[in-house]
From TrEMBL:
Residues 132-415 form the NADH:quinone oxidoreductase/Mrp antiporter transmembrane domain. Residues 624-687 form the MrpA C-terminal/MbhD domain. It comes from the Bacteria. It is found in: Cell membrane; Membrane. InterPro entries: CPA3_Na-H_Antiporter_A (IPR050616), MrpA_C/MbhD (IPR025383), MrpA_C/MbhE (IPR046806), ND/Mrp_TM (IPR001750), Proton_antipo_N (IPR001516). Residues 72-115 form the NADH-Ubiquinone oxidoreductase (complex I) chain 5 N-terminal domain. This is Hydrogen gas-evolving membrane-bound hydrogenase subunit E. Residues 700-779 form the MrpA C-terminal/MbhE domain.
Length: 809
């Protein structure tokens, strides 16, 4: 069943961009309270979405759209089903807390208003992405997340590391963006559809298409780059150069989850094949282990959490690849649990750094007494990451083990990878939760104290949400998890979550093994870190990116120096050679001269090269044009050449005028007048009475190019005039000029309406050329003054006068 909600859903998706535009002004007016007001926007969106939980849980799908490009049948449509609702609730709910946190974290920063603008635009881009029903709109919002994240990661533009991290994230994710564009176009070419609502019934068409492999490769490239899967994982840790509010939002609910969302959304139409399952499970499990081990190498709290995000994204990808109803239920549960505890832990890390002056694990300890509320938030989130009972993380872990505890080699291998990965993540969760807060107090760079209220609201509420959702697991499973898993699966998924824990279940014992391993990893964390740091790091993906990037920069510089050498003469030679080839090659190789050949073979060249029937004055204008051309070629100095060029161009304008094209004639007159004036002004920098002597080989080269261009244009015109006149285009302009464009002058209508952007481009080029010429003329240096003539007889030197001292006024 579908509900048409009009423009309300569309306005909710576009609204954050409007508020983002107003954020700097609001911050300037309200100063320290602007973040409290701006946080109401995502909070209102969250409340609005909560009203759809019941209808979506009962099987309803909310659709809304506005006309986008009606001529092409495109509508900007938005879709709210179980999957998009789960993501949108996470984005808006966590987004409201992030805005509050950012206002306190960057309090007093001179660019806080700009930061809040970028942050709200980032949230709007992600909301638009998960709500888009149109594939082209999805691509548009996909690219907007890359641009807004680039602005946020590089917010502290004075630091080289921030600039590098922003550029790296933009380059990698844009590679995937191009892959997504290719995939979207291929999907439309196969199915003829632009919307997900129509694609849900086209799965077999895509899977049976010969282009299925190409579509799959394009979608996987987009998802793997966005969600930092091996081998594109390296950009995510470098994105930690962004302020902590960005990291908390980026890693929990926004850009890195976009690739996961894309894979989940495409599962009904691309999933279910062996290659889909194999690729997602293998790469997902490899990314899980790699990221978890990478977290143990670190001592920086943000870097540890960033590496665990890579691992968690790999886990989500593997669950999507498994594709069973239980695995997809586990995917939804783990997505929600991870978003809650990861955002809270990043906020905790930022609070520790903000109030203690460091986030290095080896320089922290005993903060629980001085930052008790922060410690409570860390404990709630860390326990969910460790997946103890009474947290949502526990149910997510139980669900992902449920289908894998069978005696089947592939299932056992995947189960071992998940157990090891979850154990590593649990160990890191214990480290982040315990090491900075418990144990003996350590002197920190700043006297540690509790963070402001706006920085504490997020960790406490998100940490508590992980517990509350676990206590209400029946409601959560029925109203949120089941509809989302159903949307991913394409078929009904029922919730079986409850507090009736079966102690004989193999999945529970797999969880016990996971906990024991996690505790062991926590206790041996220092030894494991030392061991992992012995791994050779001389060459990795991050350094490979630098090598490729700087190699590309050097290659571009070499190409630029080769092609843009500053010699205008060679530029013109290349341009006209290209023009001659573009005209002659199709005529000679693609049958362009077929219309002339029958007549020529009969020897009747007169029918082809017949003399026109002109009046004497018309022949006079043609003769004047030829005379002007001869004068240009034989001019004995530059001034005569400029004047002769004007004569030749004026003759062409008169030909246009005589043969019924007054508009073209007027344009030609204006161009010729301006050309002569500009050439005269420019040439005043040179001596106009000199003759430009050129080597014989230059005459031969330029003459050959000129003849080739002239012959090509002449043959093209002859071919056109020999064939029948196709009047479809002129008939179209004649029929639509007045009723559509409201102009009786067809030429003007074509220039202004039908070719509006082209004409604007031409005007811009002429304007830029005029400005450049004006600058050149104004920068002309005055001629040097003649040297003074020396006196015939030197005068005797005078004795210097004694100057009187004058007191200052």
């Amino acid at each position: 069943m579908e509900l048409d909600q009009g423009a309300s859903l569309a306005l909710m998706a576009i609204g954050p961009f409007v508020v983002a535009a107003l954020a700097p002004l609001l911050h300037r007016l309200l100063r320290g309270f602007s973040h409290w007001l701006l946080a109401l926007v995502p909070a209102a969106i969250f409340a609005f979405l909560c009203g759809y939980v019941g209808p979506v849980a009962s099987g309803e799908v909310v659709v809304a759209g506005i006309d986008w490009v009606p001529a092409l049948g495109l509508r900007l449509t938005f879709l709210l089903d179980g999957l998009s609702l789960a993501f949108a609730l996470t984005i808006s709910g966590i987004g409201a807390l992030i805005v509050l946190y950012a206002g306190a974290y960057l309090h007093g920063h001179r660019h806080l208003g700009r930061f809040l603008m970028f942050l709200l635009a980032f949230m709007g881009a992600m909301l638009g992405l998960v709500l888009s029903d149109n594939l082209l709109a999805l691509f548009l919002f996909w690219e907007l997340t890359s641009i807004s994240s680039f602005l946020l990661i590089g917010f502290d533009a004075d630091r080289q590391a921030a600039r590098r991290g922003a550029i790296q994230a933009l380059v990698i994710t844009n590679i995937g963006g191009m892959g997504l564009l290719v995939g979207v176009i291929l999907i439309n070419s196969i199915t003829g559809s632009w919307t997900f609502a129509e694609l849900l019934g086209s799965g077999d068409i895509l899977r049976n298409s010969g282009l299925y492999g190409n579509v799959l490769l394009a979608i996987l490239l987009a998802a793997f780059t966005k969600s930092a899967q091996l081998p594109f994982h390296f950009w995510l840790p470098n994105a930690m150069e962004a302020p902590t509010p960005v990291s908390a939002f980026l890693h929990s609910a926004t850009m890195v989850q976009a690739g996961v969302y894309l894979l989940a959304r495409m599962t009904p139409v691309l999933g279910g094949t062996a290659v889909w399952t194999t690729v997602l499970v293998v790469f997902g499990c490899a990314t899980l282990i790699w990221g978890a081990l990478g977290a143990l190498r670190q001592t920086d709290l943000k870097q540890m959490l960033a590496q665990t995000t890579i691992a968690s994204l790999g886990l989500l990808v593997a669950l999507i690849g498994l594709g069973t109803p239980v695995a997809l239920s586990a995917f939804v549960l783990y997505f929600a649990a991870h978003a809650l505890y990861k955002a809270a832990l990043f906020m905790v890390a930022g609070a520790v750094d903000h109030e203690a002056g460091t986030r290095d694990l080896t320089a922290l300890g005993g903060l629980a007494d001085r930052m008790p509320v922060t410690f409570i938030g860390a404990a709630l989130a860390g326990l969910s990451m460790f997946s103890v009972p009474a947290t949502l993380g526990f149910f997510a872990k139980e669900e992902m083990y449920l289908d894998l505890v069978v005696m089947e080699p592939t299932a056992i291998a995947v189960l071992l990878a998940l157990v090891l990965g979850n154990a590593l993540l649990g160990g890191v969760g214990l480290i982040v939760m315990i090491r900075p807060f418990l144990g003996p107090a350590v002197a920190t760079p700043k006297a540690a104290h509790e963070a402001p209220v706006a920085m504490l609201v997020g960790p406490i509420l998100l940490g508590a949400a992980g517990v509350v959702t676990a206590l209400l697991i029946d409601w959560f499973g029925h109203d949120l998890m089941a509809p989302a898993a159903t949307a991913v699966s394409g078929q009904g998924v029922e919730s079986h979550l409850s507090w009736n824990i079966n102690f004989a279940s193999p999945a529970l014992w797999a969880s016990v093994v996971t906990w024991l391993l996690a505790v062991l990893i926590y206790r041996q964390a220092d030894s494991l870190r030392t061991l992992l740091r012995r791994w050779p790091a001389n060459w990795n993906a991050d350094r490979a990116f630098d090598a490729v990037f700087f190699g590309l920069v050097r290659f571009s510089g070499a190409v630029t120096r080769t092609l843009h050498h500053g010699r205008l003469e060679l530029y013109l030679v290349v341009v006209f050679i290209g023009f001659a080839l573009a005209v002659l090659v199709p005529l000679l190789t693609m049958g362009g001269l077929d219309a002339l050949m029958p007549t020529a073979e009969l020897g009747n060249w007169g029918a082809v090269l017949r003399w026109p029937d002109l009046m004497p004055y018309e022949w006079g204008v043609v003769a004047m044009a030829v005379a002007g051309l001869v004068a240009v070629l034989t001019a004995h100095n530059r001034l005569v050449a400029i004047a002769a060029l004007g004569v030749q161009g004026t003759s062409l304008a008169l030909i246009f005028l005589l043969f019924g094209a007054p508009d073209l004639a007027f344009t030609q007159f204006m161009v010729e007048i301006l050309s002569v004036v500009i050439l005269t002004l420019v040439m005043t920098r040179l001596r106009l009475d000199e003759l430009d002597k050129r080597p014989f080989e230059d005459w031969v080269r330029d003459g050959a190019i000129a003849l080739a261009c002239g012959i090509g244009v002449s043959l093209t015109l002859m071919v056109i005039l020999t064939g029948p006149l196709d009047t479809r285009l002129s008939d179209f302009f004649t029929a639509t000029s007045v009723p559509v464009a409201h102009g009786a002058n067809i030429v003007n209508v074509i220039l202004v309406d039908y070719r509006g952007f082209d004409t604007l481009g031409e005007i811009s080029v002429v304007m830029a050329a005029g400005i450049a010429i004006m600058v050149l003329l104004k920068s002309r240096k005055a001629p040097p003054m003649p040297a003074p003539t020396p006196d015939p007889e030197p005068k005797p030197a005078k004795a210097p006068r004694r100057r009187r001292k004058v007191a200052d006024a």
